[in-house]
Amino acid sequence: MKLQNQIAIITGASSGIGKAVAKSLALEGAKVIINYPFEKTKADAQAVLDDIKQAGGDGIIFQADVSKETDVQNMFAATIQQFGTVDILVNNAGIQSDAPFEEMTLDKWNAVIGVNLTGQFLCAREAIKEFLRRGIDETKSVAAGKIICMSSVHQIIPWAGHANYAASKGGINMLMQTLAQEFAPKKIRINSICPGAIQTPINHNAWATPEALNSLLTLIPYKRIGQPEDIGKAAVWLASDESDYVCGTSIYVDGGMTLFPGFTTNG
Ligand code: BGC
Prior knowledge:
The chain is an alpha/beta fold and 267 residues long. The protein has a single domain, classed as Rossmann fold, CATH 3.40.50.720. Helices cover 43% and strands 14% of the residues. The chain contains eight helices and seven strands; from the N terminus they run βαβαβαβαβαβαααβ. A seven-stranded parallel β-sheet has the order 3-2-1-4-5-6-7, with helices on both faces. The relative contact order is 0.14. It binds beta-D-glucopyranose.
């Protein structure tokens, strides 16, 4: 077990990529805090926990809107009170609220920046405070703490009609690199995973019909849509000591989406 007894908070873990990451970390021995945003997603979070327990893992569910400072502080305080500390943060919670730019309302802009970018700031700050307080616990890891930022291929691929989302992911990249530089001397490792098209509710329209899926596959040299488990495996590695020398890096798990597939037969 690569993450035995480590305490991992996974934000936005009631569905999609977060759910798979929570399961993958739990199967490697981590106790997982399955964060969910609202009352109406509580049952989904509980189902994730039930699955994990059935597979021999352990954890709790916790409601917090990561864009709200007090919610985030309460989640970390409750985790530390119950489990003693936090070893791993997976900054995963993310939303899309798309619009042609000239029609994008400030509400849409703020909602996406609030969850995707401010949420990562707030959670990272609480995690780092705890990592600095505790330092290295060699019974668990050679690092003093690990943060995985869930970014996207859209931290480098511009995305028309999704300016708020792309801006949030570009921001995550610089947040991640800056924090990695600032806290590497304290043995805190901070990295990003950049998923491509992963089959989850967030991009339902992109795979729900054969036509949509075929069109999507023209953007993916590896010719399959990604599965949440593809990201879960990368997260286990980045959270474990097997990646101990990996610091401030983005790992693209995208079937080659960032390889400019349009140039295969053009240019
Ligand atoms: C978005 C998905 C999209 C994928 C590839 C992700 O970050 O959330 O909606 O399918 O990028 O474009």
